[in-house]
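Student: Send me a single protein entry containing the residue sequence and its fold in token form, directly below this note:

Tutor:
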Amino acid sequence: MTQKTINTELLQAIDAIERRGSFARGALELGKTSSALSYTIQKFEEQLGLAIYRRQGRRSVLTPAGQLLLAEGREILQTTARLAQRAHEIATGWESRITIGVESLFPYPLLWPQLEQFMRQHPTIELDLCEHILNGGWEALQQQRIDLLIGAGGPLPSQQGLSSAALAPLPLQAVIGAAHPLSHLAASEAGCEQLFQQARRVVSHDTSVTDIARSAGLGQHGSRFFVQTIEQKQAAIVSGIGIGHLPLHRIADQLTDGLLLPLRPPQAAAQPALLAWRMANKGRGLQALRQQLLSALAAPPTTR
């Protein structure tokens, strides 16, 4: 039994007729005469052994089989269009996917609008986001598990074929939860110094696997309580388990509500943030995304 196949010419014809509302207007869109378009439909009806259109008064309407061809055919046309565009982009140096690593301290609300704009401008490029802590992002970049690293703390690893540009620094604040039994010490500079020396510190695990892991924060005094994510760190500090640095953008409301108390000096410290990539990666999509992020998020120029 000969297999009956459907090609995109038929699907495009049905789509044009239904979108335009008639054979005549559909033919005009396709650059054909009405008689030529009618012949195309009749030819495929004979090949497939089914009716695609039937007469209803003075109009031609889709049969149930024709409605199926229209609905699923449009999905096929969209898929083939994306496939053709993706193949063209790959052939001309555009990637099909970019994997992005984000330092856990980085404020995502600054990132979402930039990624949405990039995907709108490059609809065939998929973005794959993952989160890293401390050395974990550098390791992932060196091992080619990510293409771009956003918000990494310095310094840039030397002799690794990496390049970077400065983003706006990330404000951090040392805090203690109001529920902590020693939270009253946060009211004075001397009390804060006592907390820095004695209080348990809440520390996020470095996501590095093969590199030497490190932690960042309030020095090496006192015991430590380790967590996996920045969300866990924030919740642990609020609950009174210990003290630690947190991104100011995450805790502004809790500082205002009194759930968290700043440790002196009350002003937030700024952690340097870098945008980093492998110099050997010449993908045009990566270059476009990098330029867009730097235009929107780069550190302001220094003045003397």
